[in-house]
């Protein structure tokens, strides 16, 4: 029996050692960390419940676009690389312009393109939800829409006076003749 007990003892010790090795806390392999992509444009869809029209519109980050009585302002818009499962989210603020022309915040939070019903804005007349994030848009960026400050402005700063208060000038028309009334003569009938 001593041989049998020695063999059992050896097998039990090997089993205990392997169990202890498996039970020891192991550092799990970290999943590959994917970088999220920061996008300059958020793409939204909105529905006007009165007309039934669904409209898709692009909004640049930190810019406000009005959709009906709602003002939509995305603060960030993240997406994942094309090689990974889609995960697109945006932090959005939505304000409502009330009938008395006051602005009231009705939504602040994250919208998820893959779950549009999760955090969509549901308004009495308008609904808005995130469709995706983009690097480019057909809509010109807000800086391109503004005038270039390097270019001189022509008559942009001078408000024009009403036509009644401007002095009459004598200007020839295309034929070289002076236009009627341009000489300062009053041609209106007083009767």
Concise summary:
The protein is α+β, with helices and mostly antiparallel strands and about 190 residues long. The protein has two helices and nine strands, in the order H-E-E-E-E-E-E-E-E-E-H.
Could you explain how this protein is built, in words?
By secondary structure, this protein is an alpha+beta fold. The chain has a domain at 37-136. The chain contains 2 helices and 9 strands; from the N terminus they run H-E-E-E-E-E-E-E-E-E-H. It has helices spanning 2-23, 142-145; strands spanning 37-38, 41-48, 53-60, 65-67, 70-79, 89-97, 103-112, 121-122, 126-134. Strand 6 (89-97) and strand 7 (103-112) form a beta hairpin. It is globular and about 50 Å long. The model is unreliable at 151-190 (pLDDT under 50).
């Amino acid at each position: 029996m001593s041989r049998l007990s020695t063999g059992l003892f050896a097998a039990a010790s090997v089993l205990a050692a392997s169990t202890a090795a498996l039970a020891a806390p192991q550092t799990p392999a970290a999943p590959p960390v994917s970088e999220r992509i920061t996008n300059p444009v958020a793409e939204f869809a909105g529905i006007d419940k009165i007309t039934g029209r669904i409209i898709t519109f692009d909004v640049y980050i930190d810019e406000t676009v009005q959709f009906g009585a709602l003002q939509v302002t995305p603060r960030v818009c993240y997406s994942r690389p094309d090689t990974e499962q889609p995960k697109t989210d945006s932090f959005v603020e939505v304000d409502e312009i009330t009938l008395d022309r006051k602005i009231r915040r009705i939504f602040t939070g994250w919208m998820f393109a893959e779950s549009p019903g999760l955090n969509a804005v549901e308004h009495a007349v308008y609904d808005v939800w995130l469709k995706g994030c983009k690097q480019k848009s057909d809509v010109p960026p807000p800086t391109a829409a503004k005038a270039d400050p390097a270019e001189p402005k022509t008559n942009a700063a001078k408000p024009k006076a009403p036509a009644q208060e401007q002095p009459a000038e004598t200007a020839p028309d295309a034929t070289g003749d002076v236009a009627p009334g341009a000489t300062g003569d009053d041609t209106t009938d007083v009767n």
